[in-house]
Amino acid sequence: MDDQPAVLASSALAVGSRRRPERLPGEARRIGYLYIAPAFILYAAFNLVPLVQGINISFYNWDGITAGTWVGLGNYTEFFTDPTIRTGYVHVVILMFFYSFMPIVIGLFLAAVLSRIRIRGLTFFRLLLFLPLVITDVVTAVAWNWVYDVDGPLSTVLRTVGLGHFVPSAGWLGDFNTALPAVGVFGMWGQFGFCLILFLAGVMKIPASLYEAARVDGANAVREFFAVTIPGLRYELQVVLVLTVIGTLGTFDEIYVMTGGGPGTATSVPAYTVWRRMFQTGQVGSAAALGIVLMLIVFAVTYGLNRIMERGAER
Amino acid sequence: MDASSPTAVRVRIVLALVVAAIVSAACTPGGSATQATAPPAPATTGVPDTGPITLTIWDQESGQVGKIWDQLNAEFEDTYPNVTIDRKNRDFGELKTLLTLAISGPNAPDVVEANQGWPDMGHLVKAGLLLPLDNYAQAYGWNDRVSKNVLAVSSWSPDGKQFGTGNLFGYTTMGEIVGVYYNKQKLEDLGLTVPTTFAEFEQALDVAKQAGEVPIQFGNNDAFPGIHEFAVIQDQMSPVSDLTDFIFGLQGSELSFDTPDNLQAATTLQDWTNKGYFTPGFGGGGYDSAVANFAKGEGLFMITGNWIVENLGADNSDYGFMVMPPIEAGAPPVSTGGAGYPLSIAASSGHPDAAAAYIDWMTSDHASELLLPTGQIPLHTGAATFTVQPGTVLADVVDAASDVSKANGVVPYEDWATPTFYDTMTAAIQELMGNRISPQEFVANIEQDYADFQSSRT
User: Fold this and answer.
1) Across the interface, do B29 and A62 touch by the CB < 8 Å criterion?
2) Residues of A in contact with B419 (CB under 8 A)
3) What is the ipTM of this complex?
4) Could you report the per-residue pLDDT of B136-158, keeping only the tens digit for each?
């Protein structure tokens, strides 16, 4: 694993900062700031400034137009007292199973299969599996609304094979028990192509000699998968895990299009609650606080995942 | 970890951001709210001829009503050649999301349709973004054109803290009523007559159910129709004055949603659901398809508002309309409804006099006459002069609205009661009708929202 460029780069930095000589060749020069200025100014204007404004607003009870009143951390304590916010996070955790765990499992399995067998037109299949990710969520969500309809294709197929009693009478998105998993399956369908593409690229990078060595040692396909493929895909796994988990925490499009958080609050998620409070019910301060908390959770989760993965690598 | 290691640099950046945030926290978001000052009464009514004027209008009217608006706008431009109308049509959700931003911005529209109640109009009045219309009402005689309750739901104290009293901030002469449509042929086939009491209505539901008919055509995927199903039951179980006081909230937290009356209404609604009185799978059914199915002849009853007259056809005589029958025979009719969407003038409008003339035009007898066939009910006190074909569904709707109005039985929409009431009620009704919560939990959940809002006002 030591030949990974990421590891090299970070050890170089560590060496550079141990002592402070005059200036080593290649060390940052002040003119560097000029080069990053255009990007930084844009980033500051559209990300940092709104972030600071958002933090500011989050300390107020503000309806969006009239003068706000200072409430200190009042909007943040709401995070612990308001049960609708809590259920939103519970829903996100359930969605992670569909948006992160399942796509990784399916992606790994398909990558292992596709890398072992040589089929004609592999690029075509890869394109097909990747397609859901290229089309905008909003468009596919509308199509899935129809799939999940009480008279939609899913229900029709189930009825045809005699499983009609499993079809919820209110349709898959209208039933309290099936709405969230239905949204989850939609997300899973969109995500696994992304995982697969990364894993396929990763598998190709694993030296064939490792597989040969495993076979010489008498490993079967399953053994080979766990001993060679998965360790070889560690970096891809890390990327996929972090991206899909962050993506799940920010789930909004499909909820907006498919359920509106309903029925009841069965599919409400934090990002949707932020939007509703911001634009529909005039609770801008509360929305800002929820947004900040969501951001902090995303930071914490990303940091935590990276630490876990890196510790795994050291072993 | 060295002071200049990348992590330390990052830590310092984050610290700097936090400090910046704390420093900036000293500045309060939002401008200081200045109450809008009422424009002086115009010297003459009508548009002053002081050069070309462009009036920007934001409304949410669609379909047939939208076409009639275009016609009325064109006629207004013909009457006042110096006026150009720039109509910006938004759908209901879009208007709700964008209106606040638009009206507080530099290029605000002149005339807007703002929904009554705390979530929309209350919000704008508090920020001083709408003009008090009292002087115009005086000049044009608007107050005499409609009854007091129509004006009350668009009235606010100048600081926007009291609802249902004070100055007039919006005006309309078109009304709405929520009630029960029935399929005449189906009633006859089932051997029923039009129910005159609540018990008879429940009896009819049972007969329809036994006969394999859908008793009440309903689709609640869009969440808002549930409010109307609950409201017509609640209207019969709770006194009108209690409901109105609760919605206006003039007594603050003295009033509660957690009452025996509301509990009984919630219990009844859940009971109807469990007896299968609503379309099977209503949770996934859309409102538009429910209306279409009812118009196709599916379902004995449908509980909704006057606006579907347009879908059924104004001269349709196969359907009838009534308000939900009272519990005691012969009791005065009560139903949710009242004023439709009012027109308001933005405080930043450069042409308030012309805007007032426009509102007067859109609320004239002529406008009402054109809009009547779409099911929009004229609230003009002299509305009897409009001719409606007797025996049609439109005639039933107009009669019902007039009876309710004469009996002072109009209950405003309950979702006006707090800024978040629409969300709270729609979610709670879906949960109640899905048997996720008990009627006790239902009234407690909604009361929580009301109590929170009332305590935040003081």
Assistant:
1) yes
2) 63, 281-283
3) 0.80
4) 999 999 988 888 888 999 999 98
